[in-house]
């Protein structure tokens, strides 16, 4: 059930990123992809980190039947980056829901 709900939220996240024209057709450079700063914020926009790092890692964990993170706090970054843009509040809400869902599995 947790995998199903998480997958649904990841799909909503991707859909909303596409709807808001934040989905990129260009993958960040290998250097950006290996950036170790939180959310790779020194190397790429937050939405690129979501698309190219977060979503693929979560899908991989689900596909392999691995444990999902329980100590997750991505919503605060979404609030920080997008709170001033009313059209992106749906994205923030998705992260709020994802953080809550995964934190409740402890």
Describe the structure in brief.
It contains 5 helices and no strands. With 106 residues, the protein is mostly helical.
Task: Describe it.
It is a single chain. The relative contact order is 0.17. It contains five helices and no strands. The radius of gyration is 13 Å and the shape is globular. The longest helix has 18 residues, at 2-19. The chain has a single domain (1-104), classed as Up-down Bundle (de novo design (two linked rop proteins)). Helix 1 (2-19) runs antiparallel to helix 3 (46-63), helix 1 runs antiparallel to helix 5 and helix 4 runs antiparallel to helix 5. The chain has helices at residues 2-19, 30-33, 46-63, 75-82, 89-103. By secondary structure, the protein is mostly helical.
Radius of gyration: 13 Å
Please, how many domains?
1
What's the rounded overall pLDDT mean?
94
CATH class: Mainly Alpha
The CATH superfamily is identified as YqcC-like
| Main sheet: strands, sense, barrel | none
Q: Structural class, from helix and strand content?
A: mainly alpha
Strand content: under 5%
Q: At the third CATH level, what is the topology name?
A: de novo design (two linked rop proteins)
End-to-end Cα distance: 15 Å
- Output the helix-strand order: HHHHH
The level of helicity is 55-70%
- Number of helices, counting only DSSP H or I runs of 4 residues or more: 5
Shape summary = globular
At CATH's second level, what is the architecture? Answer: Up-down Bundle
Low-confidence stretches: none
InterPro entries: UCP006257, YqcC-like_dom, YqcC-like_sf
Domain YqcC-like: 6-101
Protein name: YqcC family protein
Pfam family, one: DUF446
């Amino acid at each position: 059930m947790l995998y199903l709900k998480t997958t649904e939220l990841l799909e909503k996240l991707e859909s909303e990123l596409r709807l808001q024209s934040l989905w990129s057709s260009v993958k960040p450079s290998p250097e950006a992809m290996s950036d170790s700063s939180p959310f790779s914020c020194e190397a790429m926009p937050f939405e690129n980190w979501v698309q190219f790092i977060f979503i693929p890692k979560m899908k991989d964990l689900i596909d392999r039947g691995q444990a999902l993170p329980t100590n997750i706090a991505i919503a605060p970054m979404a609030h920080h980056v997008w709170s001033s843009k009313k059209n992106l509040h749906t994205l923030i809400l998705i992260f709020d829901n994802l953080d809550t869902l995964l934190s409740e599995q402890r």
